[in-house]
Specification:
Lipocalin; 282 residues; alpha+beta; 10-stranded antiparallel β-sheet
Length: 282
């Protein structure tokens, strides 16, 4: 009796399953169009929100925006405005402008700049109260119009400042002068250790020429080319100034460089190195 009851229970279950299975398959094969249509906008919104939340990158937090930017911008009553803007990490700037074809005098300005809420544009306010807004791109600043829009129409380059090339192999390091014009430098014969250090953020160099502290500007260009501006120095008198004179001469003559992890040379064309430096020990 007990066996018969169990058999009837199993048989009933099998019949129930065989009756329900086709209905489940049919339901799975027939799409609920109304439900999908209602869900689609919500799914798109979720996907978009996820993308925006996951992206979160802007010029301020994703680019190495600090550095030196140069270019010739448009001018209404001159040949062009030779502009150099240096942006520092602490949100300060320096700006140098020359109205070419009108005046050789450089107009120097400095102050603080601010980022907009999107982290894409910066506003620079000059000493005269004039305001300029730039869109910060990868290695470029685009001057925006009064409505905060990019200036187009074939004149884009006249409103763009390009960032100087950088090379972390040589910048941000202290380089000790080891050879100068083919002769080894004897540190015991100099009043101070001769060295140079290049700062990518400001485009300036500093160091010592064996007697006096030296400083000035430099620019790296594509193809390991380099140029140094006229160097300034302190005015201390030392017993032997020959090394300092030659060091400053080399900076003016050099037009390219080569570098390894531990050495750095300044060269003129393809001639023998004018100066060789060794990386300072920690």
């Amino acid at each position: 009796m007990k066996k018969q009851s169990i058999f009837l229970t199993i048989a009933s279950a099998c019949m129930l399953l065989s009756c329900n299975s086709p209905q489940q398959d049919e339901t799975a094969q027939v799409p609920d169009t109304a439900t999908k249509a209602a869900a689609q906008p919500a799914m798109q919104s979720v996907a978009m929100a996820a993308t925006q939340a996951g992206d979160g990158h802007n010029s301020k937090n994703a680019l190495d925006w600090y550095g030196v930017y140069k270019g010739m911008t448009a001018c209404a009553d001159c040949d062009g405005i030779a502009t150099t803007i240096t942006l520092a990490r602490d949100n300060t700037f320096t700006r140098n402008q020359v109205y070419t074809g009108k005046s050789d005098q450089a107009i120097f300005d400095k102050g603080s700049f601010t980022w907009d809420s999107t982290g894409s544009n910066i506003t620079i306010k000059g000493r005269d109260g004039g305001i300029q807004v730039y869109k910060v791109g990868e290695n470029v600043l685009f001057l925006l119009d009064k409505n905060g829009k990019r200036i187009t129409g074939g004149n884009e380059d006249k409103y763009a400042l390009r960032k100087n090339e950088t090379d972390d192999r040589i910048e941000g390091k202290r380089w000790i002068l080891a050879e100068l014009k083919g002769k080894k430098v004897d540190a015991s014969q100099t009043t101070k250790q001769a060295f140079i250090q290049l700062d990518a953020e400001t485009g300036t160099f500093s160091g010592n020429a064996g007697c006096n502290n030296i400083f000035g500007s430099y620019e790296i260009k594509n193809g390991a080319r380099i140029s140094f501006g006229k160097a300034g120095s302190t005015m201390m008198a030392c017993k032997d100034m020959a090394l300092e004179k030659d060091f400053l001469d080399v900076l003016q003559r050099s037009d390219n460089y080569s570098a390894t992890d531990t050495s750095f040379t300044l060269n003129k064309a393809r001639m023998a190195p004018l100066a060789r430096f060794e990386l300072a020990k920690p």
